[in-house]
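Support reply, case 0932

Customer input (verbatim):
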Amino acid sequence: MNVNLNEWATNKRESFPGAKENPQLDSDSDSEFEDETQYEVAARDRSKTKNIYKWTYALVNHPLYNFIVFVLILFNTIVLASDDYPQSLEKEAVLSALNDFFTWAFFVEMIIKMIGLGVNNYMHDKFNLFDAIVVSLSLVDWCLAIILTP
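Our regenerated output:
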């Protein structure tokens, strides 16, 4: 059975009133990509105005930067997975220090991306939004640990 998905989608769109006006359902429309391109173009244009934007934009788009962030995520996962009970005070201190390091490293990564890409472009990407939520919750956890530790 050979089904042409574009034809099937077109028939389904025509069966719902007002569906043709929805650009996400129109297979010929790249509006979702156009929005992303507009944000990328805005970030590139902004990076031409000041050196800090130019430097951070080039940094966050460099493959080595993304590789370093990936390695940080990998090591953070290993540190989180090595937490067990009961554990010695030395191991607890080392894991706590490493957790603090990764929290602040990811916070710096988030700030650099917000500067380089611009806040709108940063928040437009769902992975960055998820990352910002995780980093924010980690910072709240860090602050509460400082406040509540006797």
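We compared this against your earlier run and they match. Two observations from our side: The helical segments are 5-15, 31-47, 51-60, 63-81, 89-117, 119-124, 126-148. The chain has one domain: 31-148. Please reopen the case if you see a mismatch on your end.
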